[in-house]
Design goal:
It is a single chain. The protein has an 8-stranded parallel beta barrel with strand order 1-2-3-4-9-10-11-13, surrounded by 7 helices. It has a two-stranded antiparallel ribbon with strand order 5-6. It has 14 helices and 13 strands. 48% of the residues are buried. The radius of gyration is 22 Å and the shape is globular.
């Protein structure tokens, strides 16, 4: 395997799944929606196979380690995200049942230890043959803190200070083994070369970790690192450590500016501008005609109640919206320690589209603060082509409203059109996920020594 980057033509595509995997808040109520993926591995196998048949680059499993709003279960009884399988367990289960698609999972830095994360993802990279990716986030809900012996989440700046050191330790541990450290020398009695395994000896503000990691160098050199968010702290951290940045950007101009900001920050750190792929979220409602696509969208939105939508938006951005007029223009909202960039994003959506608070909240049920497109195949492909070819996105993180239907629609209808336009791969490239994405290796790739 070469250490040189293999250039990737066209955009990169991932699919975002979590819990029951229906992204629309009430998608689980659709007659064709799967509702049991929070407990049913067979559903995930089906989703992974649809995505892999569509040549998608990554299956991205999001996570929250709490029931958000769990202090009043009656108020959230229509929320299907109360039931989630652990994403790391899912990756391990899906790895032998897939061949090409990358397998990404969220693991929050606020509620675990770097040695554990380094060991888990290095192991998953070996198990999957070099297809593992870690979505490195701090976590952002008070309910998560309360599940880990804390009354509330740490302040935003404190979380990111810990997260940056956490990521440094993880990546340092992934360098414990040199590529050819394992000898498997039965005749000479040397299983490994002691000169090629290194202790980390990290001592910092938050962590003291000796190392070395007791998992050999990963097939990708290190698993792909993903950073998700839209705040300045995300840009700072992502430009330093991330291979991929997932972000919520509802409009083209904001997405282009954010991508420019990430790339400029990466260059300032001595990295190549294209060593970080910026992938906004994209919610797609597609059908053979615009009218049919709109009907799909309307059928889901007809189930949304305004009061429930506003309460849900408040929980999402950690802002009490109960005192605002639902029919007034979207109010000014400031970021907070739990959600620094989210409130402002929803304010921009409201101002740019001249929407009321109620309208913003209802739209959030479909796409939160991500880009939303409703239309025929050409409409969807046009938007994606415009964003990709004009500097707003290296690719997209797809948010299927209902599964498997919305995922299958995209893979069977939109992917062929993107391929026809020369915007997307006809087939998977060989090698690891890092190879497939055209990203550089962090040093030498591991030797493939065979036992004698």
């Amino acid at each position: 395997m070469s250490d040189a980057r293999r250039p990737r033509d066209g955009m990169t595509l991932a699919v975002f799944l979590a819990g029951d995997s229906n992204y629309h808040h009430l998608g689980w109520r659709h007659p064709d929606a799967a509702v049991d993926a929070g407990s049913n591995l067979e559903r995930w196998i089906e989703f992974a196979r649809i995505a892999e048949a569509g040549k998608l680059d990554m299956l991205f499993i999001a996570d929250q380690i709490a029931i958000v709003g769990g202090d009043n279960l009656a108020a959230i009884q229509n929320n299907s995200k109360v039931n989630r399988l652990d994403p790391l367990a899912l990756i391990a289960a899906l790895a032998p049942l897939t061949r090409h698609i990358g397998l990404a999972a969220t693991c929050a830095t606020s509620y675990t230890e770097p040695y554990s994360v380094a060991r888990m993802f290095a192991s998953l990279d070996h198990i999957s043959g070099g297809r593992a990716a870690w979505n490195c986030v701090t976590g952002g809900q008070k309910e998560e803190a309360q599940n880990f012996s804390m009354e509330r989440h740490a302040a935003h700046a404190d979380r990111y200070a810990r997260a940056n050191e956490f990521a440094d330790v993880v990546m340092g541990l992934w360098e414990s083994f040199e590529a050819d450290a394992l000898l498997y020398d039965k005749i000479g009695g040397r299983f490994f070369d002691p000169a090629k395994i290194h202790a980390l000896n990290h001592k910092g503000e938050h962590f003291a970790v000796r190392g070395p990691l007791n998992v050999s160098r990963a097939p990708q050199g290190r698993p792909i690192v993903i950073q998700a968010g839209g705040s300045d702290a995300t840009v700072e951290m992502g430009s330093r450590i991330a291979d991929v940045v997932f972000t919520a950007q509802a409009a083209f101009e904001g997405a282009r500016d954010f991508r420019d900001q990430v790339r400029q920050a990466a260059v300032a750190r001595g990295r190549a501008a294209d060593s970080v792929k910026v992938m906004p979220g994209l919610s797609v409602y597609v059908a053979a005609t615009r009218a049919e696509a709109q009907a799909k969208f309307d059928a889901l939105h007809a189930m949304v109640e305004v009061a429930d939508a506003i309460a849900g938006l408040g929980r999402l951005i950690e802002v009490d919206l109960s005192g605002y007029d639902p029919d007034a223009p979207m109010p000014d909202l400031e970021g907070n320690d739990l959600r620094m960039s989210g409130p402002g994003t929803f304010v921009r959506i409201g101002r740019e589209k001249n929407l009321t608070l109620a309208q913003v909240a209802i739209q959030a049920k479909a796409a939160k603060n991500h880009c939303l497109v409703v239309g025929d195949v050409g409409d969807v492909a046009d938007l994606m082509e415009h964003w990709h070819c004009n500097g707003a996105a290296d690719g997209f993180n797809l948010l299927p409203a209902i599964v498997p239907g919305s995922l299958r629609d995209f893979c069977e209808m939109v992917v062929p059109e993107l391929q026809r336009r020369g915007l997307y791969q006809q087939d998977y490239a060989p090698g690891t996920l890092r190879d497939k994405l055209g990203l550089p290796y962090p040093g030498a790739a591991p030797a493939r020594a065979a036992a004698q």
